[in-house]
Amino acid sequence: MRKLYFLVPGTYGKFACGGLWAELKTVKLAQQICSADVVTYRQRETDQLFIDDVLAEKNLDQAIFVISWGFDVAQLAAKLKQYNVIYHAHSAGYNFRLPASIPIITVSRNTMGYWGQKSPNSLIYYLPNQISNEFENLHLERKFDVLAQARKSSEYLMQELIPALQQQCQVKLVDSYVEDLPGLFNQAKIYLYDSAEYWAQQPVSEGFGLQPMEALACGCQVFSSVNGGLSDYLDPGFNCYKIAGYSKEYDIKRIIKVLKSSQTIDLPEEFFAEYRTENIIKRFQVILDELNEFFDHKINFSANIKNLSKTRVAKLRIQSIYKKIRQKYFLK
Fold first, then answer.
1. Contact 63, 42 (CB under 8 A)
2. What is the pLDDT of residue 308?
3. Contacts within 8 Å (CB) and 24+ apart, 158-166
4. Cα–Cα dist 319/327, whole Å
5. Which of 7, 76, 232, 265 is most buried, most CB within 10 Å of its CB?
6. In what helix (H) or strand (E) does residue 73 lie, and over which residues does it extend?
């Protein structure tokens, strides 16, 4: 099995974010299957490989480069076109296309659907992000009625809903890094998450959205938006509530109703099994086996399926219109 090189711009400082942590988690999971290393390409780091040094090595046909940093993917794909490359897709909506020679692994079915339409000739796989086993319901006494995090939260949530809720119940708003997030979720009855407005301002989508799932695993009732990757697992009316539902008054009414109810949420572990380490490693093994077989094939064969380019789509539309006109006026 080929060695994996996971390319990231850097592993700390200005590059620190949820997407980076998710990618570094994936590296550790990959290391349980095959040889895998992190490679930086924007900043040199003393304890990491650097892209120029790696490309100077020999026998890179026995390696696979995994690219994931959306804004750099097009440039990296061009730079690495002579090598084996995988795109590990978190978010959807980046304005680039990829050749069929680059397989795509997506972290959500939402993103998989996006690339299934945009790159129909590419190999595409689904490998969800991991939810750590530490996120579980400890059945503790819950100190807070409502918990919310300021980051990525909508203006409506921060300036309207939360101030109104603070007049009726105990609300904890977190606006900094939390060391023990599982512990915090286990202290809250309800968790609020509303990222639709944030992602509407970005050129891309919510890639996965771990926090609502982590809150569910810890036994919180979740009021959330269902944009992007959140739609993979959130099911309003069955495992969560849709936030920002019609009016502030209706949101408050539903939240207070849940607080007063003795009903609790305790989803079975089977619900989370898809996102736990054991299942992800099994899926990863299957995917990597297939990809190694594909890269063996690519050595001797070229891509020969017509690409669904803008020009070809336009041509197909013209052909379709012509066919309809011909059937209507000339084949009677």
1. no
2. 79
3. 160/248, 161/192, 161/243, 161/244, 161/248, 161/251, 161/252, 162/192, 164/248, 164/252, 165/252, 165/255
4. 12
5. 7
6. helix 73-79
Q: Which amino acid is at 290?
A: E
Strand partners, 188: 144
Apex 174 CA angle, 192 and 272, nearest 5 = 50
Rounded to 10 degrees, the C-alpha dihedral 100/281/48/67 comes to 20
Q: Is 270 helix (H, G, I), strand (E, B) or coil?
A: helix
Tokens standing for residue 141: 């006494």
Reported residue count of the chain is 332
Which region holds residue 13: left if phi is over 0, alpha if psi is between -120 and 50, else beta?
left
pLDDT bucket at 309, cuts 50 / 70 / 90:
confident
248 and 160 Cβ atoms separated by less than 8 Å: yes
Residue labelled with tokens 């109703």: 257
Q: pTM of the full predicted structure?
A: 0.91
Q: Is residue 124 very low, low, confident or very high in pLDDT (cuts 50, 70, 90)?
A: very high
* CA atoms of 155 and 197, how far apart (whole Å): 8
